[in-house]
Amino acid sequence: MGSEPRLIYLKVLLLGQLTLEAMDELNGTSKYKHNLKLNGQRFLKQLEGYLRNDYDIVYSNDAEIATNVLNRLESLIDKLRTSDVDELVMIDAVIDKYHDNKEWFKEHADAEFLKLQ
């Protein structure tokens, strides 16, 4: 299996949220299916229930880090959701470059968690 189950749950949760948001964009077209969206929402709610205990443990240990991580994930979801196909291809290429040379990005790219007020 390779990945830790909580990380797999998180991936499913993120992908599910992206799917629901994409379905919202189909609203008003012949491809929109309200029942399918309701089932997706039920699935995510159930999955969130499984993750809640793990999240509560992390949040109680360091609320600032937990909040920053969730904010970054939400930002990433929004960027992916609003990107067109060409942009998604470029984002994928940048991520591949990051994985190939993390040290270069750490030296030259500016990324940090902000202090919460």
Topology:
Elements: H1 5-26, H2 34-61, H3 63-82, H4 85-100, H5 102-108
Helix pairs in contact: 1-2, 1-3, 2-3, 4-5
Keywords:
117 residues, mainly alpha
In what range is the share of β-strand residues? under 5%
- What is the string of helix and strand elements? HHHHH
Number of distinct helices: 5
The Rg value, from CA coordinates, equals: 17 Å
- Which ranges are low-confidence, i.e. pLDDT below 50, for 5 or more consecutive residues? none
**Could you give the distance between the termini?**
40 Å
Briefly note the structural class of the backbone: mainly alpha
For the largest beta-sheet, the strand count, sense and barrel status come to:
none
**Average pLDDT number:** 80
Report the strand count: 0
How much helicity do the residues have? Answer: over 70%
Morphology: globular
Provide an overview of this structure.
With 117 residues, the protein is mostly helical. Helices cover 79% and strands 0% of the residues. It contains 5 helices and no strands. The protein is globular and about 50 Å long.
Describe this structure in a few short sentences.
The protein is an all-alpha fold and 117 residues long.
